[in-house]
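Box 4.2: Ligand-aware structure prediction
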Amino acid sequence: MSGKPPFYITTPIYYVNDNPHIGHAYTTLACDVLARFMRLDGHEVMFLTGTDEHGQKVEKAAEEAGIDPQSFCDKVSENFRILSKEWNFSNDDFIRTTEPRHVESAQALWRKLRDADAIYLDHYEGWYAVRDEAFYAEDELTQGSDGTKLAPTGAPVEWVKEPSYFFRLSAFQDRLLELYDSRPDFILPESRRNEVKSFVAGGLRDLSISRTSFSWGIPVPDDPDHIMYVWIDALTNYITAAGYPDENGENFKSWWPALHMMGKDILRFHAVYWPAFLMAAGIGLPKRIYAHGWWTSEGQKISKSLGNVIVPSDIVARYGLDQVRYTLMREVSFGNDGDFSHRGAVQRCNHDLANDYGNLAQRVLSMITKNCDGQVPEHGDFTAEDSALMAKAYGLLQVSRDHLDTQAFHLMLQSIWNVIGDANRYVDETAPWALKKTDPARMATVLYVLAETVRVLALLTQPVMPDSSSKILDQLAVGEGDRQFDRISADHALTSGTALPKPQGVFPRYQNDEAA
Ligand code: ME8
């Protein structure tokens, strides 16, 4: 044990009415990068993803596919597991809300809420959008071009009238506002926190939390005419996977609370409803709710009707996996909306990866092969420039920790690329190829400094680009056991005389460059 606190991170669980798209891949990728970073930094990590399988939307999709809901869920859920493999996601668990462990957990939470008098039986009459699986008030609706009523998200709504259990959400307004004030980084980014605050300050209505007009859901304990509203069922997955209802078990105590990552569209469920449920049940609150932005494609909103859905496996086939992982994490200030374009992706592949990073590693390793017998060179005394470059590289670990503490992936990558830029300038300024004749000992020192800098860079790019970083580390003969972040210091610097394998390029240029 490292003595560092355990780290629990979750993606939303994805509806199985749809196949994976870039939105799913993006949320899970961000979690994967954090999970990998924290593991490399010596934390025990639980990284959870999974599928949200109940509710009217999934029931309808199964009906349309002409199969029973459970077989439908089994089939589509598998596509999300395949996405995890294809994108090299390192999730430790994959939860499905139709699993017995989850049904037990959701029913236990329900009983707890009922026993705390946070639930009462009444009738619901109002608007419901199946696409969002959300209830809306009349004054939130807009008119579609054909006069139909639409949710603020653009989803069609229908009038629902049925008996329903309610959660006393209105009783939690003050406690929620207090929470947002006392823990300013509970919701990030800050602009989103302000949105949530003003929503809650505007007043909260009690929340309908059961349905009787269809049956694809978890039965309400002791009242099987009702099934749970899909969001109370879905949110509970986060504690199920940590061992709930065994609240006093070792698992739950060590993992909970979690950092929840999601897209901005589902922030309200996570930042308002979920903490209120937990408060009512006397369970600790999440560590953080982070809502990231949305992607457009070539400047356009992504939608099935426009036919511009970005399929995760397509972009990986086109640009390469690590190239796509890097592009998505670098292209946008995390938290903001962003645009995925072919031109942007090619620029990242060719400029940042092939030219800047790849070329640095390749140049250094080839010069070592040619001029230093393919061994980590001997070095003499370091000049101020040598030491400055290596110190800046070592310093990146703390810089990266600080950025990832607020999920600023783009800033971490910018800082790493600053050092890549410094290293490339150092190559040009020291001109080791010219030193070969004039001062071979100095050449060896320069190449040592560069190889050591590349080692540190490759350790730090592991969370974002696991395979490519591993290839670079292989070429520097850094063993599997020496790839944790505690090796980022001069004490673990490369050992002169170590034989290195023949270097190979790691980041090919994107050819067939119609955008250039
Ligand atoms: O909401 N860009 O499931 P879901 C970025 N089951 N992110 C996007 C996006 C885009 N264009 N489109 C969608 C659900 N997303 C619930 C969650 S959690 C207890 C239950 C994101 O399959 C979106 O913001 O609709 C969300 O985080 C996820 O992809 C889609 O989730």
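In the box above, the bound molecule is ME8. The longest strand covers residues 119-129.
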